[in-house]
Design goal:
By secondary structure, this protein is mainly β. It contains no helices and 11 strands. The strands form 4 sheets. Strands 8-7-10-11 form a 4-stranded antiparallel beta sheet, with no helix packed on it. It is elongated and about 65 Å long.
């Protein structure tokens, strides 16, 4: 369970006429459907159930995510080393000769990872 709660109920107005919405379902005209979603996480940040895997091996960057997204690779000084669209699943990005030991990988979906050669 991810800690979220969804509650549905009807607000009643003062008029009291009834309509038939569908066979066997009667909705009073004075009722308004309301749905509330309550987040019970401690931070208020929704829980993402997909794993993000990012690592360097044999001078290649491996990025494995569950969705298609843009990938940006930066040095710690902020210089953009690579940018490109990654399809869903594993993507292998060849790296130039090791110039930087620590790199920052950022995605268009919002996650950021630090990788070390």
């Amino acid at each position: 369970m991810d800690g979220n709660l969804k509650v549905s109920f009807y607000l009643k107005q003062e008029r009291r006429e009834e309509k038939t919405a569908m066979p066997f379902t009667r909705i009073a005209e004075n009722e308004i459907p309301v749905t509330l979603e309550v987040d019970h996480s401690y931070t208020g940040i929704r829980i993402i159930n997909s794993a993000i895997e990012v690592y360097i091996s044999n001078n290649q960057l491996y990025v494995n995510t569950s969705q298609e997204e843009m990938i940006y690779l930066y040095t710690v000084s902020g210089q953009l080393e690579y940018s490109g669209m990654k399809p869903e699943g594993m993507e292998i990005i060849p790296l130039r000769q090791p110039q930087h030991q620590v790199l920052i990988v950022k995605s268009s979906s919002g996650w950021v990872q630090k990788v070390v050669r």
